Amino acid sequence: MKLNTKNLKAIQDLYPDELAHCYGCGKMNPNGFHLKSYMVDNETIAHFTPEPKYTALPGSVYGGLLASILDCHGTGSAAAFVCENENIPLDGSINIPIRCVTASLKVDFKAPTQMGVALELKGKLRSIEGRKIWVDMTLSANGTICASGEILAIRLKD
Ligand SMILES: CCCCCCCCCCCCCC(=O)SCCNC(=O)CCNC(=O)[C@H](O)C(C)(C)COP(=O)(O)OP(=O)(O)OC[C@H]1O[C@@H](n2cnc3c(N)ncnc32)[C@H](O)[C@@H]1OP(=O)(O)O
Question: Which SUPFAM superfamilies has this protein been placed in (predicted)?
């Protein structure tokens, strides 16, 4: 079901402009995917509809694209979970001061991912240990989990 984002702020839109050039999710990158992830009830959600040029086999989505959007959903989720943990607001009143980058990303491709539908990505916090944040993710098409992912994101030092 499509998420109503009317009263929500995308995590990636809370990055300051100078750190928002990521190809996958940066609002300042005119050529990028502009993935937007939202915190909803202690999990993160993003929707993304790939263009047909990202085809693997006819009718299904190229796995590299799926890994790419899981990567950005994972780092955004990691930053958001740290903010929640530290009572930093995600309501847009401030740019978030937390920066996380991918140290490790694992993706399991479980079923072909149908082209032409809005994909749903979800993230759940597994753990935070110091600067290390582990997030478990799923990517679904029409309610079928097509890929699962796990990311280790590292919080950058100030
Ligand atoms: C790039 C700057 C952008 C900033 C803005 C971001 C906005 C968002 C942009 C969106 C981005 C979208 C997504 C993208 O595309 S992000 C782009 C792709 N990612 C990168 O380019 C990251 C490249 N790597 C690094 O810069 C450094 O290696 C980092 C920063 C990750 C850590 O180097 P640092 O010197 O800071 O820390 P450390 O080496 O003491 O490690 C710390 C702890 O982590 C553990 N560890 C490390 N690696 C691994 C591993 N592979 N498996 C398991 N564990 C690992 C390590 O053992 C240690 O544990 P412990 O000993 O403490 O227990």
Answer: Thioesterase/thiol ester dehydrase-isomerase
Residue 145 domain-assigned (yes or no): yes
CA of 133 to the centre of ligand 1 (A): 10
Domain of 105, in residue numbers: 11-155
Residue 132 lies in a domain: yes
ipTM: 0.92
Q: What is the pLDDT of residues 76-119, one digit of tens each?
A: 999 999 999 999 999 999 989 898 999 999 999 999 999 999 99
Q: Which residues line ligand 1 (CB under 6 A)?
A: 15, 19, 22, 24-25, 71-72, 75, 99, 101-104, 130-132, 152, 154, 156
What is the rounded CA–CA span in Å between residue 122 and residue 105? 15
Residue 1 lies in a domain: no
In this predicted model, what pLDDT tens digit does every residue of 57-69 receive, in sequence order?
999 999 999 999 9
Would 2 be classed as within a structural domain?
Answer: no
Residue 154 has pLDDT above 90, yes or no: yes
Going by C-alpha positions, the residue among 72, 61, 46 that lies closest to residue 115 is 61
CA 132 to ligand 1 centroid distance, Å: 8
